[in-house]
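Retry 2 of 3 after timeout on previous attempt. Resubmitting structure tokens to design endpoint.
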């Protein structure tokens, strides 16, 4: 057993790794995960990020990241949070997961920290004509993929097919709420992991938990973490 598997959230990690190891489909295995308050909020009403995860559940999240080939978010998360989408709490972990961003209208900010990474530049999926923004992002090292347009944004099936063609076997989808709901609604979730903080703060709500065919909840520090296999 590795240090990650025996650390915080080891039961959740073991279940998640089991799903990834058994996956044999043509598309990448998809893990949907988010953190929420006890009131269901994942961000403030003005779309600012909330610090919800405890150190223990954050360590578990980084161990989950390390188990996936890619981490995927929507452009709203990049604009609001400016995340690195890296494994930082497991020192020396190689290689880093590939950051992937869904950006329908290509509004990726030039000052985003993802563009400053020296190890993994972002892969950006967009629709329509590239325009001058495309060349500017490519000059910063980003890799751009033009995708089909689906209901409400980038076609998720097209994204997953392209990721599979690029050698990605597993994807951890972290947000925001619109992207999480889109993956769940499309039936692309192979497993769902939700961290619930004891905080009672209200704000923008995340997705409702889907119906599960198998599920459990464990305490990780002060948080409660639910793992489940969605009902297909």
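Retry 2 succeeded. Sequence:
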């Amino acid at each position: 057993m590795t240090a990650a598997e025996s650390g915080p959230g080891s039961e959740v990690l073991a279940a998640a790794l089991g799903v990834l190891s058994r996956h044999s489909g043509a598309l990448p295995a998809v893990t949907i995960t988010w953190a929420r308050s006890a009131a269901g909020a994942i961000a403030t009403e003005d779309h600012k990020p909330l610090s919800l995860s405890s150190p223990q559940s954050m360590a578990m999240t980084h161990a989950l990241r390390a188990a996936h080939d890619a981490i995927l978010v929507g452009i709203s998360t990049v604009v609001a949070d400016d995340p690195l989408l890296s494994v930082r709490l497991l020192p020396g972990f190689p290689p880093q997961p590939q950051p992937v961003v869904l950006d329908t209208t290509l509004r990726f900010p030039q000052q985003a920290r993802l563009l400053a990474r020296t190890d993994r530049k972002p892969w950006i999926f967009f629709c329509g004509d590239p325009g001058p923004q495309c060349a500017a992002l490519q000059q910063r090292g980003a890799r751009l993929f033009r995708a089909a347009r689906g209901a409400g944004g980038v076609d998720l099936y097209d994204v997953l097919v392209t990721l599979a063609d690029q050698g990605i076997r597993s994807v951890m989808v972290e947000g925001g709420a619109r992207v999480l709901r889109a993956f769940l609604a499309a039936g692309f979730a192979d497993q769902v992991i939700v961290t619930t903080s004891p905080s009672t703060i209200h704000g923008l709500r995340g997705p409702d938990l889907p119906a599960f065919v198998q599920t459990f909840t464990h305490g990780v520090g002060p948080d409660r973490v639910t793992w489940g296999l969605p009902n297909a």
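Attempt log closed. The domain at 3-230 is CATH 3.40.430.10 (Dihydrofolate Reductase, subunit A).
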